[in-house]
């Protein structure tokens, strides 16, 4: 398709004037005179055969026709500016949009991102966190790192590693725990996956306490661990994701008893063709330690 001539100077003059509702402030932004901006807007109005502004004694008022044109131009200029900013030292910077379970993002991914940046300096990683409920297509994500069994419809899922759960708590509570049965006297913090404590107690070979049915339910391990750090109770969480807290002595793991409820997976929509930047991220995360 052959595009019609685009009066870019006139379009820029209009877009800046519409944002500022002032030819004078638009002129300052564009480094031209106020008369030049006014002239360019008039050129555009003549070309479109519409009035884009009502000229007032103190500034401008955008018309309905101008309101219709402005969002399209703003989005187009923003996208062009974003693309131009991605060029650096003769290379185009590629973007990878990744969503990750908050626990994984904070406990595993963030400490390793400098290594990714060093290996792939021209890939910009844009990270968002979630609580394992994510819609890749709706959220515009290239990848989502989530926890589970790997069965998501229409999703390509590559296993990363397991992260078994164990008991974590502050030292003051850990001092009271000499055997797993001592947990029956503690507040057990729970995630929205209701079978985790049941599975852990089965691994410990003791009966599940009735107190398990009481207490706060958290939608993420990060929030649950924050409660544990404040001494609100005992958490069941993956120690490998809280290695920093364990090393600092902020929390302790009183028992070497684990239960595995699934793995972390790198997922993408099956219809999404991987870009070179996506392939770089997938290769890196598969081998990162």
UniProtKB/TrEMBL annotation:
Q: What UniProt keywords are attached to this protein's entry?
A: Activator, DNA-binding, Transcription, Transcription regulation
Q: Which residues form the HTH lysR-type domain?
A: 6-63
Q: In the record, what terms sit under GO molecular function?
A: DNA-binding transcription factor activity; sequence-specific DNA binding
Which InterPro entries does this chain map to?
Answer: LysR-type_TF_proteobact-type, LysR_HTH_N, LysR_subst-bd, WH-like_DNA-bd_sf, WH_DNA-bd_sf
Whether Membrane counts among this entry's keywords is no
Give any Pfam family that matches: HTH_1
Q: SUPFAM superfamilies in the record, alphabetically?
A: Periplasmic binding protein-like II (SSF53850), Winged helix' DNA-binding domain (SSF46785)
Gene3D superfamilies linked: Periplasmic binding protein-like II (3.40.190.10), Winged helix-like DNA-binding domain superfamily/Winged helix DNA-binding domain (1.10.10.10)
Source taxon at top rank: Bacteria
Q: Signal peptide location in the record?
A: none
Keyword Ligase set for record: no
Q: Name one GO biological process term.
A: DNA-templated transcription
Family membership noted in the UniProt record: Belongs to the LysR transcriptional regulatory family.
Give the matching PANTHER family: HTH-TYPE TRANSCRIPTIONAL ACTIVATOR AMPR, HTH-TYPE TRANSCRIPTIONAL REGULATOR
Q: What is this protein called?
A: LysR family transcriptional regulator of beta-lactamase
